[in-house]
Amino acid sequence: MTPSPTTPCGLSARDVTITLPNGTKLLDRANLIAPASSLVILAGPSGCGKTTLLRWLANLPDDSPAAVTVEGKIEFTCDKQNAEPHSRGNVGLVFQNLALFDELSPEANVQFAIDHRRPHQPAHTNAKEQLKQLRIPLDTPLSRLSGGERQRVAVARTLATHPPILLFDEPTTGLDQATARSVAQLIADTQQRQQATVIVVTHDYAPFLPHNPKLYLLNPHERNIGMVQEEELRAFFQNPQPAALRNQLSNQPINAWPDKPWIKWLTGPGEVLGNLILWPLALLGGWRRPRWKLRYFWHYMWMVGLGSTAIYVAIAGAMLGFVFTSFSFSQMPYAQVTVPLVTQELLAAVGVSTFRIIVPLMIAVLLAGKCGAAIAADVGARRITQQFDALSSFDVEPRHYLYGNIGLALIIACPLLSLLAYVTNVYAAMIAYLLATGDGSLAVFDRNFFSIVWPINSNLPRGIGWVLTKGAIGGLVISTVAYTLGARPKSASVEVSRDVGLSIFWGSLGVLTLHSIFTFIEF
């Protein structure tokens, strides 16, 4: 089934001014007009504000504290029934990094877009038909697709919402000439088939010239956008830029963060505290599409609470139980004399201390390391590959699907994993007791190890509420620290590694502090 063409829709951006945090203007009252059903190439040198302009046209948020400011007016000229003023529903964006959701299959990526289309957008073909149309294999995982196939998945996902205007951000950057020509052909064919208005932002304009596009130049010399001929465009890129202009473009990061104490506070402990307070809102958001809300929850629940994590904490609990009990008996002064006299008291002390303090604290620290690192890496990778922007482009608040579910997964997992570790701790402690005493019995161990933890006349272990509460709050602390650090704007993979390390440090310190406070309150 071939999808029906979109309603032709043009775009006009008028009086656009882009200003850097230091006051430097990249554009000054510039205009860009893309007629309906046209192919437009917006070319310009690196660092001149092309991507910033594209994000503004797509109405994507910029969450850095000192981002560039963009002023101007956008007008859509199309059927009023299918257009909204400056609505994301009018515009589809294919990101430079493609921003595909790596944990989903190609079909699920397209289905995500179909399920998140706006109310005024028509239903499209189903995901399988969309992928077949673009010659994308259905049975191949996303990680095994070629670069060109991944590009087509990104195009298919964007087309699934049936936008009348398509934006492409540097689609041929880093590709060889043959692949670049193939991508340009794909974009031109998409424009013709959909009758969409396509705007391609690039400095590599040559692959698109055979398709007779309208050529615009973002000129940093004059700080404007003008329609040009092919010869003028070639001449501009062949002539070297003035040294002063090159320095201005290369030394002015688009998202430069000012060196102010209050900014550092807001992006550090203050941001963590703010996210901690607002976590319930993140959990409550995103339920308009419960299928996807629950799917992300299961993704993170498996990451932090099941699989290798459960095995990890079970082994750790067993090792702790064996070592702690063994040393408690073997290292007592005059063990042959004292152990028979204090066996009951020693077993009771080991039982209650491991249940109420040692096992919950150890598991919290281990999870701050393992799960905190995994979450920070997962969220950081989503940030650097523009998946946050991809979610926003489908009107999804990233924290609703990510932070809300990460927090819930760890709130559930941490207490349950503590109990799992305690179970293995008990069995290992029993073995250590039998080996250390030689003549001990299971009845003696069972009667005395649980004498304080679980009295005979009690239905539940004593202090179970404290254990579960510490675990739940500790899980929320770990998830908040990891998400906050992972979600920070990033420009290089080394920043992901840095935030993983910081997540382990601050998460571990946070749960150590939490358990210390609880210990004094609890006892």
Architecture overview:
The chain has helices at 50-57, 106-115, 127-133, 147-159, 177-194, 230-238, 243-250, 261-266, 269-284, 290-305, 308-330, 335-384, 387-393, 398-401, 403-437, 442-449, 464-486, 493-522; strands at residues 9-19, 25-34, 39-43, 69-78, 91-94, 165-169, 197-202, 214-219, 224-227. The protein has 523 residues and is α/β, with parallel strands linked by helices. Strands 5-6-7-3-8-9 form a six-stranded mixed sheet, sandwiched between helices. Strands 2-1-4 form a three-stranded antiparallel sheet, covered by helices on one side. A hairpin with a 5-residue loop joins strand 1 (9-19) and strand 2. Helix 9 (269-284) crosses helix 15 and helix 10 runs parallel beside helix 15.
Describe, in short, the structure shown.
This protein is α/β, with parallel strands linked by helices. The chain has helices at 50-57, 106-115, 127-133, 147-159, 177-194, 230-238, 243-250, 261-266, 269-284, 290-305, 308-330, 335-384, 387-393, 398-401, 403-437, 442-449, 464-486, 493-522; strands at residues 9-19, 25-34, 39-43, 69-78, 91-94, 165-169, 197-202, 214-219, 224-227. Strands 5-6-7-3-8-9 form a six-stranded mixed sheet, with helices on both faces. A three-stranded antiparallel sheet has the order 2-1-4, with helices on one face.
Defining key terms:
single chain; 523 residues; alpha/beta; 6-stranded mixed sheet; 18 helices; 56% helix
Q: Helical proportion?
A: 55-70%
Give the strand line-up of the largest sheet.
5-6-7-3-8-9
Summing up helix and strand content along with how strands pair, one would put the structural category as alpha/beta
Q: Give the helix tally.
A: 18
Radius of gyration: 29 Å
Strand content: 5-15%
Low-confidence stretches: 249-259
The main pleated sheet reads as: 6 strands, mixed
N→C terminal distance? 69 Å
Return the string of H and E elements: EEEHEEHHHEHEEEHHHHHHHHHHHHH
Average residue-wise pLDDT: 84
Record field, number of beta strands? 9
Q: Per the principal axes of the C-alpha atoms, what is the gross shape?
A: elongated
